Amino acid sequence: MDSSCAVPRAEQDFGSQYAKEHGFSLDVSRIYDADSAQRVQFDLTDDQQKALTLAVEHGYYDVPRVANQSELAEKLGVSHQALSERLRRGTKGILKEVLPTISSNENTSRNL
Questions:
Q1: Cα(19)–Cα(24) distance, integer angstroms
Q2: pTM, to two decimals
Q3: Within a domain: residue 15?
Q4: Before 100, cis peptide (omega within 30)?
Q5: Whole-number Å distance between alpha carbons of 96 and 102
Q6: What's the pLDDT at 71?
Q7: Closest by alpha carbon to 15, among 6, 26, 5?
Q8: Strand (E) positions, 1-112?
Q9: Which of 9, 51, 66, 98 could pair with 86 in a Cys bridge, judged by C-beta atoms 3.0 to 4.6 Å apart?
């Protein structure tokens, strides 16, 4: 591990002790420094992050929907199909990180 990215042992111990004292258990899979925490992208490409950000900012995910994919695609200068793919793959990438029960296996049964 690059020592410049390592979390000092005292800080690890403090976090573990705090969690224990407050009834939490820790399962650490990733550690980010505080300065880059806002830039965590859940393995998104830059294009996926831009598409998702634009969709949220312009009300694509609102109910009722304020913007449609054609409008967003035009703002990004891409086709409707390209935007749709970016939104779907980006959303899947986020959900796989946020919902730990989702398998990363692409061939998982899709019975609904």
A1: 5
A2: 0.59
A3: no
A4: no
A5: 6
A6: 97
A7: 26
A8: none
A9: 51
Contacts of 47 (CB under 8 A, 6+ apart): 86
Check residue 103 and give its pLDDT. Answer: 63
Structure tokens at 89: 């793959």
Read off the DSSP letter of residue 37.
Answer: G
Q: Residue 31 carries which side chain, given as an amino acid letter?
A: I
What's the rounded Cα separation, in Å, for the pair 12 and 72?
Answer: 43
Nearest to 87 by CA among 105, 73, 77: 73
- The 10s digit of each residue's pLDDT in 49-85 is 999 999 999 999 999 999 999 999 999 999 999 999 9
Residue with tokens 């959900």: 95
Single-letter code of the amino acid located at 21: E
Q: How many domains does the chain have?
A: 1
Note whether residue 32 is domain-resident. no
Over residues 2-35, the pLDDT tens digits come to 444 455 665 667 777 888 888 888 777 766 665 5
Domain that holds residue 91: 42-98
Rounded CA separation 42/29 (Å): 13
